[in-house]
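#lab-general

N.A. 3:47 PM
ok so I finally got the sequence cleaned up, no stray characters, all 640 residues accounted for. can someone with queue access submit it? mine expired

B.Y. 3:52 PM
send it over

N.A. 3:53 PM
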Amino acid sequence: MRLAAPILLAALLTGPAAAQDLLNALFADHAVVQRDRPLPVFGTAAPGEAVTVAFAGKTASATAGPDGAWRLDLPATPAGGPYDLTASTAAKTQTVRDVLAGDVWLCSGQSNMEMQVQASGDAWNQINNGAPNDAIRMVTIEKADGRAPKANFAKPPVWKPTTKDTVGSFSASCFYFARELQKTRNVPLGLIHASWGGSGIEAWMTPAALRKVGGYDEAIDTLNLSLKDPAAASRRWGETIKAWWAPKHPGEAATAPWTGAGAWAAAPRDLGVWERWGVAELAAFNGVVWFKTEVMLTAAQARQAATLNLGQVDEMDATYLNGVGVGATSGAWLERSYPLAAGALKAGRNTIVVSAYDTYANGGMYGDPSKRALVLADGTRLALNVWTYRIEPRVGADPPRAPWDTLAGVSTLHNGMLAPMGPYAYGGLAWYQGETNVGRDQTYAALQTAFVAERRAGMAPDMPVVIAQLASYGAFATTPGAFGTAALREAQRRAVVADPQASLAVTTDIGDPFDIHPANKQEVGRRLALAARRIAGDAVTTGPAPVSAKRVGDTVVVGFDQIGGTLVSRGSDRVIGFELCDAAKACRWADARIDRASVVLTAPAGAEAAKVRFAWADSPTFNLFDSAGLPAVPFEMDVN
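B.Y. 4:20 PM
back already:
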């Protein structure tokens, strides 16, 4: 039995091997391990110590390396249990109980994967009237980030069988997926949920995978520099923000905000949420506001090292001292505290400038105003309570995010949440992410492909991967045009089409144009389960998907597969939602009708039709389904 006394928990996270931590923390009571393949078991012991593991009537041994890490592989175990899993050395033994062998799925992504059963549609009924299910076991990985891979979880994971007391706080999409899948899979299912709302795919990937995609070398190098020389990394990042600002303000270098020059307006003494200042321009402002304060120092004070305390900044800051970057942090909940080496300050006037970047809801510098201070090495505390501000115009691109940004950085969530899993075996991946990457669709297909490849590394090379395509949210299309969410959906689709062991769950018909978190996660789960069954070879379909687009006389004929029954156009004898585009992507609506397993679009003679689009909007209007009730996948395709 695992103990949870505080002193033992501290040892598990930070200390040397003890009786409770021979095994990686995912090997815990009620766990599910992957069936029908060699089972990696691993953990930490004293360097050079021999470790023996027993499970389901099988044993194997290994010797801990110089760093104490050990791993062994047990022979494959068929579905079944419960079993005890025991790891022992000459000095200690650890046993975890009630372990099942079954299919383990990693469910990951951002907020739509994170959304809990209790926050989704029909929650009370699903929680209170759903049958307990000991064959679906759930574990949620504690949120954590890191600039380097972590060996330990932020908190030891806790596996829980499905009951009305445990299911409400678990991922809705992941649970409903498993519940549906188990209807046709008579094996235990283990669900490992690791997601974080607002996260970009880059945060879940290793530096090696990002370097293969290309375009991330500078970010990775800066991240690595921050581990060796944080001050140098802060200076480099400060220059990156300057490089973002300068092209937007040609000829204004003398009054750049980090210089402290130019026009500044007085800010409220306690700062706080800028939407509440009574300033019209800030009443609903999302973007960058620069804050400035000044502090006078004697020569003796200036020679000291110091700490710059700023309190909370919503939601990202880049902070300058006398024009030099000294820190950057993401996360409105985090207190900013930046060390300043001796020599960073100067006698006389010192100018502190903070770039506060807010992307949604409230923005500003808030929390306890008394925490804002420059604290010198000798203990002298200089309050920072007089601030001015200037608003950065919303023109051009938004500022870049620091490579150590929790959600939008590189490798941060891989380091904090996935790396501690080590080689814990799972048999499939369910991925629901992409909202944060809208606007960066040009690289998303390559990123998704690389992410999937490294999730398969060390697992079965044909491990199934099911992807939830982004649901409807945002702008409708009154005329054909460019839509960021539509382009991201297309990147998801292209990556899946190129992967024979991946499948897509289309959700455009069950989204909400006014809520990025649609409530109907039961149907999301059902469609993810259909996708998994399709990969496994079951006789199921996942909704009409385009396979060809051909010019035939004065028409363009789009062929579909994955049709459940027949194609249908709901509410009309014509199909709504198709566009024909020329080579420059100037598009127009196209009249369309169903012809068996195809849709025929009218393309007048002489009219260029280089591409065809379907359901191309953030919140598309369309009526093409199959008779099984599944929507056609949104797409863009070249016309042959």
